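Quick log. Single chain, no ligands specified.
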Amino acid sequence: MAQRVTYRRRLSYNTKSNKTRVVKTPGGKLVVHYIHKKVAHPKCGDCGVALPGVPALRPVEFARISKRQKTVTRAYGGSRCATCVRSRIVRAFLVEEQKIVKKVIKSQEAEAKK
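-> predicted structure:
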């Protein structure tokens, strides 16, 4: 008959945080190993792609690492991917250019009326 194993912690319910694996030790004994939850990789807020340069860690482990390991040294680093940042910068530049063009056209029309 198979050897029985018991939980090693006080939580006695089969919850998501209490998942286990039965492992056989070199001594032939069966013991319980607790399985960590799967880690979700940090995603870009605009396009949803996984952020390169930011490690995929559980929240407690993420809090333990230093700030330079959590972010990328760039505008919106650790929040948006490089492609989205580039598109934001280009969009802002084009909007400003459009404003200037409108102003120039308006001034030319005013001079033409005089």
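The CA atoms of residues 55 and 70 lie 7 Å apart.
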